[in-house]
Amino acid sequence: MNEVRNLAKQTLIYGFGxxxxxxxxxxxxxxxxxRVFKQxxxxxxxxxxxxxxxxxxxxxxxxxxxxxxxxxxxEYFEKVYSTALISLFLTSLLFVVLVFIFITPVSKALNYxxxxxxxxxxxxxxxxxxxxxxxFARLRKENRPIVFSVIKILNVIITICVVYFLLEIAxxxxxxxxxxxxxxxxxxxxxxxxxxxxxxxxxxTLIMLLPFILSTKLVFYKNIWLKMICxxxxxxxxxxxxxxxxxxxxxxxxxxxxxxxxxETVGVYGAGYKIAVLxxxxxxxxxxxxxxxxxxxxxxEDAKETYAFVMKYFVIIMLLVYLGINLYISVIQxxxxxxxxxAIIVVPIVSMGYLFYGIYVNHSIWYxxxxxxxxxxxxxxxxxxxxxxxxxxxxxxxxYMASAWAHVxxxxxMIIMSFGFAQSRYKVEYNMKxxxxxxxxxxxxVIFGQYFNYPNLxxxxxxxxxxxxxxxxxxQYKDKILTVFFKRxxxxxxxx
Length: 496
What we know:
mainly alpha, globular, disordered C terminus
């Protein structure tokens, strides 16, 4: 199916805008932070960035998906884009103003009463990133993944250069300086420079996106905005609940365990979690390409067959990614500092949770296509309730392992609910039972890799590489995966 091959190509290109910058972020910044900061200091970074994820969902309030939904007709494209831009600009500006006005109570609520600067920069970063969501959505809608990717990559490169200068080079300059540099640089500011670097990176991104903002005549269309809000608000609730599933564990952990010890635990868990998030990056790059593709494909008679086809190969490829992360963990673990590596044990669990989340994201297109976004609320609220219950009651007993398992259980429940609700409303024959052998094989390989006593690292890598090649061979034998993605002409859905 040529459309699916195009989707795969788009996904790979978006990967440069998702995987590359995130890899630079995790591979360089996580490597750097877990060696420069103590566990509690890194806990501050982990927790505040968890809050950032939640606030980004609130401040974008489903407008990205709303933009895709209402910009399908060319005559409405500019009106929808202009309206969404103005809406996000006003709400983002309001957020910054309110945080600056009420900085003291906000800082206390976040448990950082003595760090007003952190919170101010934090608010500015979230606001800029939220506003930039719509220009980035336009690039995705117009199938301009290269521009999208270049801007995303430059954002991270700028951030890395600034943070490296401020935390590694600047202290040396400070020691040898007796002039103006000592007045503007504080070597004890530490974690604050992480947020300053991110703010500079976000501001640079906004500047790079200005041509795609200023090229549009900015007019606010109230009737279009009301339609978009009615459609998007349920997505806000669903997205917020989904983000809570993803981030609440760090926030709860800090408060359940206690102040200093809690931050240390959050720091250690956050480092292990960052490795598992590599799985989420592949999910994200697929979503960037798939969301506009699914809406466009809905016009065709064979749309349901396409969705089933995409789901099957998505799961197989994500299982391959899962194997790559977990069978090469002995090498990947060096991304984090030695004092943080005890949390590597959560990687197979959390990464499986993200795989489940990817299946849910893939399947959830049914309620987005049919304007039934309220079902997204039902599903994610129940998933959130499961996350909260497990974290609140089991963290005191099992520590961060409870948080890791909460991801698997919550997203697994969301998959079951999504399939259940769709059964009588937009049923697609996904034939998920056919994929069970894949899961059994992958889980068996990872368990073997975890508990087998390899004589040395080289032997481990050789054996685990053979496992991965065996999985690819099985996928080719059973579902012709290599043929689907590398054969020049694909004969319809004959392998689905």
